[in-house]
Design brief:
6 strands; about 10% helix; elongated; mainly beta
Length: about 100
């Protein structure tokens, strides 16, 4: 039987984000820079997908963990070469989303 190192597979490095955890409440309605994201299964009930965001806020790299379906769906539509980008997260309709260009601050 072959050993793993004989299979010729180079596993990708694990995706880990840097910085202290930050609450979405701290960045709501404020400009942030989104550097990267990952979607992983949540460890908490109701076991939805958990969005892991690598952001920059007030010139510091931070990590945010949220179960925000709309943000997750939108981020998955953005090409990887469009990162990083500036955004503002808002919640006027009861769900988190990115602020549109035409909206007032």
């Amino acid at each position: 039987m072959k050993e793993f190192n004989e299979l010729g597979i180079t596993p990708p490095p694990p995706k880990s984000f840097v910085g202290d955890k930050i609450s979405i409440k701290r960045v709501l309605k404020k400009k942030i820079i989104i550097h990267d994201f990952a979607v992983k299964p949540s460890i908490y009930p109701p076991k939805k997908d958990c969005l892991h965001l690598q952001i920059e806020f007030e010139e510091e790299r931070r990590v945010m963990f949220i179960t925000a379906t709309h943000l997750t769906e939108v981020l998955q539509l953005i090409p990887k070469d469009a990162f990083p980008f500036e955004a503002t997260i808002v919640n006027p309709e009861g769900y988190f989303r990115f602020k549109n260009k035409e909206e007032q601050t």
